[in-house]
Amino acid sequence: MIRIAIVEDDAGYRKQLQEYLHRYGQESGEKFTLKTFTDGDEIAIGYKPEYDIILMDIQMNYMDGMTAAEEIRRVDSEVVIIFITNSQQYAIKGYAVDALDYVLKPISYYAFSQRIDRAVTRLQNRTKRFLYINSKEGGRKLDCSRLLFVEVQGHDLYYHTMDGIVTGTGTMKEVEESLDSRSFFRCNNCYLVNLDKVDGIRGTEAIVGSNTVQISRARKKAFMDALNNYINEVAK
After folding, report:
1. Which helix (H) or strand (E) holds 184?
2. In this structure, what DSSP letter does residue 127 have?
3. What SS3 class is residue 54?
4. Are both 180 and 150 inside the same structural domain?
5. CATH code of the domain containing 164
6. CA-wise closest residue to 81 among 59, 58, 63
7. Are residues 94 and 22 in the same domain?
8. Does residue 225 sit in the same domain as residue 191?
9. What global pTM score does this model have?
10. Are 33 and 118 part of one and the same domain?
11. What is the number of domains present in the chain?
């Protein structure tokens, strides 16, 4: 699931961008969650690094897109920024905030889809992958390479990482959809395991770092198959 923020003060363009993303998702099979903002200050003030892509208008009433991008970059060096602008003159300044690209108004679907293609490719080619979670302390990003496993207890999710445990909210199904199914596997109803962190198998338990995680009997064969496939893929 790719999380996208649309920052645009013109209601017509906001609607058009949403429609274009819906069309792109249907054509490509990519899944998006969208959140819209009507000015740069709405996203930049108190910004939380919860987005993968930001579509940012440059000329807005209270805080222009360039200033908003500068504020966002103080907190989030990873998010992909694409500027929406009336003039190439403004777009060139985007390199100062590591903007991926820009789209000129009026926006054609072809030009827009090309930029989204580039953004999705950049996300896929990153060596670091991040998972955004809603924790009790607020939203935050977790580096997937440091995630050992996710545990569900009641209405809480516990993210066991190499740096400690982070408590979050949501459902295990949502977490599964956000993570790469080739690297993570649900070994029973309570645990979603990072296959890269499995150090061994002991009976019906997986050894994950200094932890042991129960594998249900019904899922053991599928878990072992997924683990072997992952190991073979990494070894290529």
Report:
1. strand 184-188
2. S
3. strand
4. yes
5. 2.40.50.1020
6. 58
7. yes
8. yes
9. 0.63
10. yes
11. 2
Task: For residue 71, give the amino acid letter.
Answer: E
The answer to whether 170 touches 179, Cβ cutoff 8 Å, is: no
Determine the Cα–Cα distance for residues 188 and 223; give it in Å rounded to an integer.
9
With left for phi above 0 and alpha for psi between -120 and 50, is residue 49 left, alpha or beta?
A: beta
Give the tokens for residue 3. Answer: 């999380």
The C-alpha atoms of residue 17 and residue 10 are separated, in whole angstroms, by 11
Could you tell me if 121 and 38 lie in one domain? yes
Write the pLDDT tens digit of every residue in 189-218.
999 999 989 988 999 999 998 899 999 999
CB of 68 closer than 8 Å to CB of 56: yes
Q: How far apart are CA 168 and CA 107, in angstroms?
A: 39
Please write the tens of the pLDDT for every residue from 73-102: 988 888 999 999 887 776 566 666 888 888
Residues 12, 110: one domain? yes
Phi/psi of residue 9, each to 5°? -85, -15
Are 59 and 68 spatial neighbours (Cβ–Cβ below 8 Å)? no
Same domain (yes/no): 109, 22:
yes
